[in-house]
Amino acid sequence: MDVLVVGGAGYIGSHAVTQLIDKGYEVTVVDNLLTGHREAVHPEANFVLADIRDKEVLSQVFEARNFVCVFHFAASSLVGESVEQPLKYFDNNVTGMISLLEVMVDHGVNKIIFSSTAAVYGDVDIPMINEDLPTNPVNPYGLSKRMMEQIMEWCQEAYGMNYISLRYFNVAGALEGGNIGEDHHPETHLIPIILQVANNQREYVTIFGDDYHTPDGTCIRDYIHVVDLIDAHIKAYEYLNDGGQSQVFNLGSSQGFSVKEIVEACRQVTDCCIPAQIGERREGDPAKLVASSDKAREILGWQPQYDDIKKIIASAWAWHQTRPEGYGEE
Ligand SMILES: NC(=O)c1ccc[n+]([C@@H]2O[C@H](COP(=O)([O-])OP(=O)(O)OC[C@H]3O[C@@H](n4cnc5c(N)ncnc54)[C@H](O)[C@@H]3O)[C@@H](O)[C@H]2O)c1
Ligand SMILES: O=c1ccn([C@@H]2O[C@H](COP(=O)(O)OP(=O)(O)O[C@H]3O[C@H](CO)[C@H](O)[C@H](O)[C@H]3O)[C@@H](O)[C@H]2O)c(=O)[nH]1
């Protein structure tokens, strides 16, 4: 029950830490606070301020504990930045993964649950994406994540490293009453940006393009609540622990919402008018990304609880209202 969460001070990782502790796991967090927040880490977790590329410190952490599994959330994850600074992404993401796997192999830890992304599929034009679709990442971020998957595949062959790669679609929401939530600088994700308008922190939201081949012309995405997402991680670990094979799973709600529909849903949840302006397309945005998550439902027995986009938005809204400035400067 002793687990390591790397990137546990970030948005998604901090939810993993809280949910693992609630389930009785002993949790150690390694995070360099590049984009994370010390305050986001549950007080009962052991916190180590370190970079996963620092193998010496990482080895000390492994020597001090008896980990049964590693949950790997630590990465740089801005698509646009990855195009401008590809080496940053290959260094942090790919080098970080190699360092982590080396230390795991050295210490006989053979289970890893990994944060992958829909970006491994690239620019696809099909109604519903399942895991059999060939990968074709179109930016360095997506490529780095695909490379990390491939590295795990070879480590499975060579060292018996068991992995589950979870390809997230659009993660949103916050643990209700949990005092943790999304706080990125800069914020690029649609829902927190819209909620910043409702909170009078921005004047309006820019809709990136309304000339896509979709019913209302704006991009369609599949939003999954962070609590449901972490539930799938814990189920993935239990599955490996029961002798399950290494696998890749999509994690989404299998429902698509356009940008305009998300803006409208946010208006209804917040009861604010939320001005929106149509802007240029954002480079690299596919028109539509919706997951088939049937495989995760069938093999992991995963059953997302948040099936209503307004409930997902309401949980994010509660966080942003309580902490409009996020965690503040640290
Ligand atoms: N947010 C999404 O919608 C989404 C979608 C698909 C995939 N993902 C993936 O999920 C993971 C978590 O995303 P997030 O939104 O919580 O991001 P985040 O930036 O909030 O969290 C990442 C955490 O990792 C830490 N970190 C980064 N590099 C590190 C390193 N070298 N050593 C130690 N710590 C390091 C950061 O300080 C931060 O706390 C990432 O791997 C991301 O690629 C996120
Ligand atoms: O101010 C904004 C912000 C976003 N959008 C639009 O809203 C949709 C969602 O955008 P996000 O930035 O919230 O999310 P993405 O779909 O671009 O990105 C998500 O999916 C990617 C894979 O495709 C990565 O995994 C990434 O980490 C994850 O957040 C997109 O159509 C985007 O163009 C706007 O119109 N205005």
TrEMBL record:
* Catalytic reaction list: UDP-alpha-D-glucose = UDP-alpha-D-galactose
Keyword NAD, does the record have it? yes
Look up the record and name the pathway of this protein: Carbohydrate metabolism; galactose metabolism
Q: Which UniProt keywords apply?
A: Carbohydrate metabolism, Galactose metabolism, Isomerase, NAD
**Pfam families documented for this protein:** Epimerase
Q: Biological process GO terms, please?
A: galactose catabolic process via UDP-galactose, Leloir pathway
Span of domain NAD-dependent epimerase/dehydratase: 3-252
Q: What is its EC number?
A: 5.1.3.2
Q: Work out whether the entry's keyword set contains Cell membrane.
A: no
Q: Which GO terms describe its molecular function?
A: UDP-glucose 4-epimerase activity
The record, for InterPro entries, names: Epimerase_deHydtase, NAD(P)-bd_dom_sf, UDP_G4E
Q: Which top-level enzyme class is recorded in the Swiss-Prot or TrEMBL entry? A: isomerase
Cofactor(s) listed in the protein's UniProt record: NAD(+)
Self-association state and partner proteins as the record states: Homodimer.
What the entry lists under NCBIfam families is as follows: galE (TIGR01179)
The entry assigns this protein to a family as follows: Belongs to the NAD(P)-dependent epimerase/dehydratase family.
* Name assigned to this protein: UDP-glucose 4-epimerase
- The species this protein belongs to is Suicoccus acidiformans
What is the gene name? galE
